[in-house]
Amino acid sequence: MSPTRRALLALALGGFGIGTGEFVILGLLPNVAAGLHVSIPHAGYLISAYALGVVVGAPLFTPVSVWIPHRRFLILGAVLLAAGNVASALMPSFGALLVVRFLSGLPHGPYFGVASVVAGRMVSEGRRASAMSIVFAGLTVANVIGVPLSTLVGQHFGWRAAFALVATIELIAALAVLLTVPAATGTSDGPPVRLIHELRAFADRRIWLSLAIAIVGGGAMFCTFSYITPMLTHLAGYRPALITPLLVIFGLGMTAGNLVGARLADRALMATVYAALGSEAVIAGLFFFAIHNPVLALGGLFLFPFCALAVLPALQTRIISLAGGAPNVAAASLHAAFNIANAVGAWVGGAVIAAGLGYGAPNLAAAGIALLGLGIAVIAGRHDRPTRTVGGDGEARRPTRGGRDQARPPRQPVRDHH
What we know:
- The chain is built from 16 helices and 3 strands.
- Helix 3 (45-61) packs across helix 6 and helix 13 runs antiparallel to helix 14 (294-323).
- Strand 2 (396-399) and strand 3 (405-407) form a beta hairpin.
- With 418 residues, the protein is mainly alpha-helical.
- It folds into 2 domains: 1-186, MFS general substrate transporter like domains (Growth Hormone, Chain: A); 195-407, MFS general substrate transporter like domains (Growth Hormone, Chain: A, Up-down Bundle), CATH 1.20.1250.
- A 3-stranded antiparallel β-sheet has the order 1-2-3, with no helix packed on it.
- The chain has helices at residues 3-36, 40-43, 45-61, 70-90, 94-105, 108-121, 128-157, 159-180, 195-200, 205-225, 228-235, 243-267, 269-290, 294-323, 328-357, 361-384; strands at 389-390, 396-399, 405-407.
- The chain starts with a helix and ends in an 11-residue tail after the last strand.
């Protein structure tokens, strides 16, 4: 295995720990509620607290990466994530755990943002989306292996043991980053980047449009995913004991979509975004009908997250490209946007169910949300054509058909030969 591949896998291991730590609470919510003597809906606030921490942490702590070498920043982030999960395992009351879950979410976005930048710099330009997808694969594989494993540990040894397991994973990830990621990644490829340059990237409306695509497109997935368990039990007719292996299928769809979307994004970035969002809308609409059939439901359970996650590496590559030489804050903001999508999608799905439209209604809402995301993506693509940007190296850049910037050759002076 090449040194680059080992480094990418080390970064992915940190993402695996993050994904496991974020979603483990979903499988153990009744256990946590019983252990802390609160209702299950009340315990659900722990999920919201972590998501809020991700949203706050991305803009709050990522600027630190401007001054700290990237490898050191990643190690520090993994250690802080481990500490947050250790603290979660030790908290004696619901209020204390609520605060700790918020704090635990703070390093989430900064870690993924900097890890994406580092991954992109370790490979050639034509392979950047694929390299970043390996980092994201840790998050998606967590839904296939990490969450079921930690849920099993929590059910047999108590929910506190599950958080201790996540902390162990993050400490191993910190050691792996130390041993494999080259220190030469630095904080930039050229001159030191100042914080003002990082923030100036947000003056580009195309970055805001990219974040809007993530919020709306991701919101479609979470609109359905937040209520997938009652859909599978009440509509598809599956027994509750089968929910864990069924969610593994959902995680496999996320993992495959992330990897395939990255390969496609390396070839045609914005075309991948259009195709993924359009397909997500179609699958969501079909899933409204398929969820009533236990066999057809399995296809939707895989294809829905496949389409949703195919967008993510393309958007991450686009944002880093648009940010030029100041990508850290912009890259981390994508993960804040994805957690906003979590909250918005869950709220919309809950609203249509509360309106008496049934457990299948979130799928139709998701189809509409995905179409809205596609509309935003088309607007973003149109902004690419006439707009020139200035990269972090000061060179004028022009977007290509795929949505990626390229350096424009400097204009040669006209010489007078007379």
